[in-house]
Amino acid sequence: xxxxxxxxxxxxxxxxxxxxxxxxxxxxxxxxxxxxxxxxxxxxxxxxxxxxxxxxxxxxxxxxxxxxxxxxxxxxxxxxxxxxxxxxxxxxxxxxxxxxxxxxxxxxxxxxxxxxxxxxxxxxxxxxxxxxxxxxxxxxxxxxxxxxxxx
Length: 151
Hints:
Layout: H1 2-20, E1 27-32, E2 35-41, H2 44-47, H3 54-66, E3 75-80, H4 84-93, E4 97-102, E5 129-132, H5 136-150
Parallel strand pairs: 3-4, 4-5
Antiparallel strand pairs: 1-2, 1-3
């Protein structure tokens, strides 16, 4: 659990970078053998690209680092539950473990039907382990602060 907290804190640093750049504050890091091999934060506005989510950027960074398109031995730490687009990318990466902080009831991949009311279903690879709620409050607070400042 200490390891998960440590790496989620690193993902939060990425989310804070997004916040500072006036992006929705989501951060992600990919870890393998206790080493960060990919980092990302939301850059949708900066890159004018709706696919420039933290997870997508972190995954691409990890693929480039390893020279591989699969990450079965890696874990990804994400400050907010991944959306369906990112869930698809995570599925195809065959990532070993997904750890996320805040639940996203509006856009999350597993907090909405059909996955929310059929827990035996998952948008992730069948071998992927999913852990929810690591530093959930800290991750959620950053999102709340961002949207409060926009209203």
